[in-house]
Amino acid sequence: MTPRSTDAGDHEKHGGSKHGKGDQPDPRAELAEARAAEERDDAHGSTSPDKDAENAAGPRAGASIPEIELDLARTREEFAATLDAIEDKLSVPAHARRLKASVSRRLDRDPKPVVAAAAAGAVGVVALVAGIVKTIRR
Questions:
Q1: CA angle, residues 38, 43, 48, in degrees to nearest 5
Q2: Where are the domains of the chain?
Q3: If you count Cβ atoms within 10 Å of the first and of the last residue's Cβ in the chain, which end, N or C, has fewer?
């Protein structure tokens, strides 16, 4: 599709309206042009990234049964790995383990920032609890 411009001066710099309707391009004409370009590409054997053999849906043309089974096994493994990654990303216990390991490493390297952060966190919790208690007693 052709880029659209809302600036009339910019539009005139590039040769005026391609569609003959003033400054407004015709979306139907653009869609027809894009479809015609795709058909020309298909007729000439050009392939787009979404139409290459790697991304095509279904088995490869001429693939044997063992090749198809191997492709299925690979796809299952990739799918399982993706699901495991999503599950790990959404797992609160996994996040807690990583945080604990990170804090332990930092504490081993230089304990001062970790102790300071813990102290600030404790002061914040105490202030929050005191504020809640004060609000409840009113």
A1: 50
A2: 8-51, 65-137
A3: C
